[in-house]
Write a structure and sequence with these properties.
With about 170 residues, the chain is mainly α. The chain contains 7 helices and 5 strands.
Amino acid sequence: MPTRTNTTHATLLTGVHPDAHGIVGNDYWSRSPSAPPTRLDAPELLEVETLFTVAETRSPRLVTMAAFGKPKLARLFADSPRRQHAPDELWSPALAGSVRRDPITGYSADADTMEAVVELMARAEPDLAVINIADVDRTAHGAGPDHPAVVRAIEGAGAAIGRLVAYLQESGR
């Protein structure tokens, strides 16, 4: 199985392997030398229903939510008329106001992603919540997995998850 962000998340949110859901990488590289790669982050490329689509079509009263630190995942799981349903609440740094974003990737900081999650959950308690925090991945790709910055990113991810757990405990959820 390809270890690519879009492929893995499509597998997680459809429950099927890449050969069934159709997202086999982050990009499609054409054999034509002059053709640029095509991004595989559009919901109409998914060949099967996502969990968000299943929830909306079979139990529309269920509240679904997703917060993606990586904007490309918000694009992949967005609404595609007559094909895919987006989560009821969808957040990404590209859709948000002012959040810290990595200048190269556009990914949001884990603390900002989790703060958005808490704000979304305060408005409506979700039956299904999908959260993607990206600092460890972004940092390890940029600095290498053994770099001290990765340890700091792991600690930051732990703190972000701790923020969510504290919110859930404080709100009795």
